[in-house]
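A further point concerns the way the authors explain their paired sequence and structure data. For illustration, here is how one protein appears when written out as sequence plus structure tokens:
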Amino acid sequence: MTSRKDTTSGDHQLGFPRAVRNLHLRAILDSLDDQLMVIDQDMGITEVNEAFLRMHGMKSADVIGRPCYLVSHGLPEPCSSHSCECPAPRVWESGQPVRVNHIHQTKTGSETNVRHIEIIASPLRDSQGNIIEMIELIRDVTELRRVQKQTIEATQNLLALGAIASTVSQSLDLDTVLNLALDKVLTLMKANMGGIMLKDEESHVLSYRVSRGVSQEFVEGVAGLRLGEGIAGKVAQTGEPIYVDDISQDSRLSRPVVIKEGLRAFASVPLRSKDKILGVMNIASHTPRRFSHQDVQLLTGVADQIAMAIENAKLYHEVQRMADTRGQLLYRIISSQEEERKRIARELHDETSQVLSSLAVNLQALIDALPRHPKQIKTRLGGLQAVAINMHDGLRRIMYELRPSLLDDFGLVAAVRWLTENRLDTAGIKVHLATRGMERRLPIEIETALFRIVQEAGNNVIKHADADSISIALDFRENSIVACIEDNGQGFDPDQVMISNKRRGLGLLGMRERAELLGGQLSVHSQPGVGTRITAEIPVRQEVSSG
């Protein structure tokens, strides 16, 4: 660089070197933990503090007057490398403070020690404002950089774990969860090979459930991996992760299928839920890789998240399985009930109803054959006939409530119309029945379910609603059938009814279950004082929609 000389000795006497001879200022400078160095425009050192001397193991006489680059770096000329930028030229030219960072490397045997040094260089001016010298504050920020790096890594890990948690919470389907999690892990690790192996709870062997970047031959080659076999097997057996920088260098770990796949770096982490190992997560590459402390922390945290997601997915699957089993059992029970209703109704019709009809006819014949007999006998026989007729009518009503033959013979609309005329009308409730869409016969299980829903809703109106009108709408849509029952009664709180009125609550639950068993849904909208609307929708497959 071009040296810049002091213009006058008077200016130099007004500069910093004269000021530091003051004992008070000297004490202040020597009390600093940071190193301090003052250099002139020829890059010669004019002043240093005790921290500088301690750092370099020198005395003041060994430093003053010598070039700064020779004392600080042992170089024959000013610093010029990118890692050790000299701040002096920028200070001389700009007249402004300059901050630079130096990286100092020293070797101790085979180890390389790296130190990060921060230098703040500021101009010193005379009374006329001319720059006469430069002061440098030199601070070792290695520990600060280490803490900053750890903080950044910890933040990145937390963000990564948050991303994984968000990813695996998007679904309760096991395969969806594992695929999403694996893709996220590979992205975070900047890797393109990996997989998740799950342990079979009965055979206790490992197999890949999802994988990326490896051949199908490799996946099949390690299927049924026993505990303790290979890296993944050892991890699943011990519950301890294994990180290998280059698997090809260890013949104990490098199995033929691994060699053929060309795997080098390999990390295998257990998927642990409480004290149970659910499987392992593997990350690999075709090139060697040193897994850092951050990598280890990240993979451990991710594995915990995935294990929790696996457990949740399994629990959800078990709940779904139990719900399916319950649904199948409930469907069988309801089907059996309907068959039993049909059987009882048929037997009542074939036997009891016919007997009562015959009894009524014979009683009428007796009455007709006794014109000359006492009036009292006719009266008693007439009473018996009335009893028989009433019993017959009641029996017919019971048979229809058990299983109206209209439902089997003519379908849903006819059965609902009979229900409104013989149950709701007779109870003094005005009924409006409407159909929309193309009226048609539906599968008998759908017609039965909707008829029972309308029947239960009607019974609730009669018993509880204190209503004087009800509307029933049957909407035949292309792919579904919708029944809507609405009354103008006193309404109720559905949640409260489920708790306080078990019988009525079971009726509502039964309606909902009938709809859901057929893939449909049922909603109840009601509140005290505004009536009730019950809507049931059941899907209908087109191929079975015609009668």
User: Anything to note?
Assistant: The chain has three domains: 9-140, 154-305, 405-544. Residues 293-368 form the longest helix (76 residues). Residues 9-140 form a domain with the Beta-Lactamase fold (CATH 3.30.450.20).
